[in-house]
Design brief:
Elements (H helix, E strand, L loop, with lengths): L3 E4 L10 H13 L2 H15 L2 H8 L5 H7 L7 H16 L5 H12 L3 E9 H10 L4 E9 L6 E6 L6 H10 L11 E4 L5 H6 L2 E7 L4 H5 L3 E5 L1
Parallel strand pairs: 1-2, 1-5, 2-3, 5-6, 6-7
Antiparallel strand pairs: 3-4
Helix pairs in contact: 1-5, 5-7
Length: about 220
């Protein structure tokens, strides 16, 4: 039976949250007044605590992420792909978390099917999976127009978060004989609890300090600095 090694990406394999950071990278490299205006609007909403209130009452809505993504509206897909490649090379590669990367390589050598399961965007994550020969990338997708050329500034389908991660994992492997009890999953956040509980072994990735919830669920923990 097939064994899976499921890895969240942001703050699990790389030491920062990549989705908003990618939009900021694009704005700095090739931004226009529209992008700068939307970014300023988001800062005002955050300062007025409107985003905080939205997150409290509608945690799965992702208001901040959606407003941030609007900045990419109208961008050509080829340009975004190229900027995604540069973002991977310049921003992600230098900040990969060494002990977790070593675990990923070790599991691949032991014939686990490695899968990246992330709320980050495939626009740049695909360059990571290509470099490391990872077959499965399950991530949030950016929507484009019917010709597949111009960015619509929104997510295509559902954001790959919370229980949606488990839904997508099961959908991809529905016709395959998977031993979930012998599989393993990695994440830094309790929001990925559904994925961590899907497999027989869950590993929590923590920066500097241990997280109490990891002990509550008796997960192994990797603490890095």
């Amino acid at each position: 039976m097939q064994k899976l090694a499921l890895f969240d990406f942001c703050d699990t394999l790389v030491g920062f949250q990549t989705a908003d950071a990618f939009v900021d990278y694009v704005r700095k490299k090739d931004g226009n007044l529209y992008m700068k205006f939307l970014n300023l609007t988001l800062k005002v909403l955050i300062k007025l605590r409107i985003i905080a209130v939205s997150n409290k009452f509608f945690p799965s809505a992702g208001a901040s992420k959606k407003i941030k993504l609007l900045q990419l509206k109208g961008f050509n897909i080829d340009k975004l792909n190229k900027l995604g490649e540069f973002f991977y090379i310049e921003m992600i590669k230098p900040k990969l978390i060494t002990p977790v990367m070593e675990e990923m390589r070790g599991l691949a050598q032991r014939k686990y099917e490695v899968c990246i399961v992330s709320a980050g965007y495939s626009t740049y994550l695909k360059y990571f999976t290509e470099e490391y020969g990872i077959k499965h990338l399950i991530s949030t997708e950016i929507a484009f127009d019917r010709r597949g050329k111009a960015c619509l500034g929104r997510i295509s389908g559902k954001d790959c978060m919370y229980a949606e991660k488990v839904n997508r994992i099961k959908a991809i492997f529905t016709d395959q004989d998977v031993n979930y009890e012998e599989s393993i999953s990695y994440s830094d956040s309790i929001t990925d609890l559904p994925m961590l509980l899907l497999t027989g072994k869950g590993v929590v990735v923590s920066r500097d300090n241990s997280q109490s919830w990891s002990h509550q669920y008796k997960f192994k923990e990797i603490i890095w600095d």
